[in-house]
Amino acid sequence: MGSLLSEVGHHSSNSHFHTVGPGWYPAWGGGPTAHKDSVGNLLRALEDAKITGKSQLVRELRDKLYEKREELGDARFKGILNELIGADETSNAPRASHGFLREQLREWFSESGVAPGGGGSHGRSGGVSGGYGNNSSVFGGGPRDSGGGPRNSGGPLFSGADLGDYRPDLSLDNPGKKPKDVFTGFSQGAEGNCGTVSAIKASMMHFGQKATDVFKEVKEAGDGYDVTMRDGYKLHLTKDELRQAAIAANFKGDDKELMKEAIFMFAVSAKRAQEEGNDGKGGMTYAQALASLNDGEWSKEAFDRLGLKNHVRQVSLDDLAKGVVGTADTSLHSVAVVHGRKELWGKVGGRPTEGIAFGFI
Predict the structure, then answer these.
(1) Model-level pTM?
(2) Under the phi-then-psi rule, with left for phi > 0, alpha for psi from -120 to 50, and beta for the rest, what region is 135?
(3) Which of 33, 118, 139, 194 would give a disulfide with 334, using CB separation of 3.0 to 4.6 Å?
């Protein structure tokens, strides 16, 4: 499905966007006023998208706001929100807009240190298996060392949509070999599957990059593959389902072999989600299960669906910063943390400073 961001200009008469080529960007530059205007435009478009029920557009706008927060840092981003609220009050803006801005301030910067559960990007409303449930997005304090740096690799980017053909590596060569570059090798596209992506990346860095490293057993069987997970769960994935998953995942990256392994793990995760009735929905089709992974999941749920519930526990953000491989989840995004640095859409980010952290035991 194509991006809905091109529709943003139609959602709010107060929003101003420039279109360049196939995409769009808000009318921002580098100055303080431009940053304030760009955040304001995104927030007004987000409010309209929520009112009109455009869930994919909501997710994409949330991601854009997250990127803007990464760019500006917490203090400046929070200051802009407060400025917008103040401007709303003095200009007698409609109460709904004023209330929405205050809601966003509470969601991004909860005074109690805990963001409201289920209100974040990608619709994380299901809670976290293992008892974390709502109010599970803990925000750390202090200055933010963040922002996605440049991609490490200079190689071309590939789409994973046509990589739905997989042969499990049953050789004994290099068992447990880690990815050459898990940041650039594959990453999240436009879909809201950050929770599953972050869990797969962390699992690869702990067990090895191949599905045969992460799972207990993978073998070709009949029209597809038989998979046994480390928690004993067994399932059968068809080759047609794998092809569906490759398209639905929409991964991007510069390492085709690594991407094939990641797509296979994503496909297996979706199969287990289908069989277990993800989000409490029984009788799902495989396509519906894929959609549920693209609509926001906590990384702890993703680890469980990979069969790794006995290998991952809640840790501190400091543990991740010191080198424990894992993930950090807020109500807005889930990121893998490798070598103490966050992965941000294929780029190397800063140290993890917010969220609930999970790491390998």
Answers:
(1) 0.62
(2) left
(3) 194
